[in-house]
Amino acid sequence: MKRLRLGLLGTGVAAEKLYLPAFDELRHRLDLVACANRTRKKAERYARIARVGRVVDSAEELFALPDLDAVLISLPIDAQPAYVLAALRAGKAVLSEKPVGPSVAAARRLVRAAARYTPPWLVGENFAFMSHAVKLAELVRQGRLGEVRLVDVRQMSFMDAENPYFHTGWRAQPGHVGGFVVDAGVHLAHVLRRCFGAPTVVKNLTASYDPALPPLDTALALLRFESGALGTWTSSFSTHYSGPMLRVFGERATAELFYDHLVVFDPKRREKRYDPRKSSFVAEFEHFADVVQNGRPLALSPADAVADLALVEAVARQLPMDLTKSRVRG
Ligand SMILES: NC(=O)c1ccc[n+]([C@@H]2O[C@H](COP(=O)([O-])OP(=O)(O)OC[C@H]3O[C@@H](n4cnc5c(N)ncnc54)[C@H](OP(=O)(O)O)[C@@H]3O)[C@@H](O)[C@H]2O)c1
Predict the structure, then answer these.
(1) Which of 8, 215, 287, 315 has the fewest Cβ atoms within 10 angstroms?
(2) What local confidence, expressed as pLDDT, does residue 329 receive?
(3) Is the CB–ligand 1 distance for residue 183 below 6 Å?
(4) CA distance 160 to 141
(5) Does ligand 1 lie within 6 Å of residue 76's CB atom?
(6) 182 near 99, Cβ under 8 Å?
(7) What is the CA(171)–ligand 1 centre distance, in A?
(8) What mean pLDDT, rounded, does the chain reach?
(9) What pTM does this model have?
(10) The CATH number of 128-277 is which of 3.40.1440.60, 3.30.360.10, 3.40.50.1820, 3.30.70.120?
(11) How far is the CA of 275 from the centre of ligand 1 (A)?
């Protein structure tokens, strides 16, 4: 099979930590033709370590290359929409990073504008390609957990100078809604929607404990789903936690979803474990190549990605509610 001729725009942390191992596994499927980055030196370094054919000076130059089938866009969230449209306009298939836009309103505008172009556009929600998360949705759908009554989401990791994402300038001054809560939380929003559909009710509270993590680092929400199941959502980037990122409590079994596996417990605590068959980035890139080269339908439409964003944006919504200021009339 011919390899997909891919260009990369944005050679930052995600390109190095997440894509590079997948690119290495997919040499037979992907031809990394060229890359570009705002700071060219970083693109040159990346081209050396990722064995990318050449470095070009700008996005415009990258999108104009005739020997490219597709581009992977990995930029700050609020910078992405303009480049997605420019790449589609140039006739390139696009894989762009999650979330689909810096807000639901902006994402909807982007999806409307992108509909004018024919090349395929996949939003890179890698959790859509985690086979153990997909397995969880299948078990729920098949009723293997019994009636699901409670769901507990934990999007928690301590964000400080030890974490490479802490140092990216656009996260320190975000141009997208919800800071880390949305940037990271959109993954679990996808899994939740996949398992249960969008919640019909989201009631939230937010807090900002660490001023280095604007505009907020903490969000709690209560959820109700169409099925009647209730849920809690906890996002925190200023406390420590280790444990599952999602727990699903059914009348017959409980499931715990971790980044790298799924465990299902029956009422006697007998457990069954599911491990992913491959990295979610490998699966995502393979799928994208299949879409572009073989016309396979998108596993996740841009509208799906907007719905994921809408859910997590509701969790991160900052509504001032200070009851101490409300007057009690005697
Ligand atoms: N799927 C996942 O699990 C996952 C994980 C992490 C990140 N991501 C997504 O990947 C994307 C990139 O994140 P990252 O952590 O890699 O960020 P990053 O390290 O800051 O990389 C972003 C790149 O974009 C360039 N850039 C910054 N501002 C720009 C602008 N205004 N116009 C054009 N280029 C600009 C930067 O160039 P300079 O070198 O000049 O700064 C940098 O190389 C984000 O959309 C993020 O949500 C996804």
Answers:
(1) 215
(2) 47
(3) yes
(4) 38
(5) yes
(6) yes
(7) 9
(8) 96
(9) 0.96
(10) 3.30.360.10
(11) 29
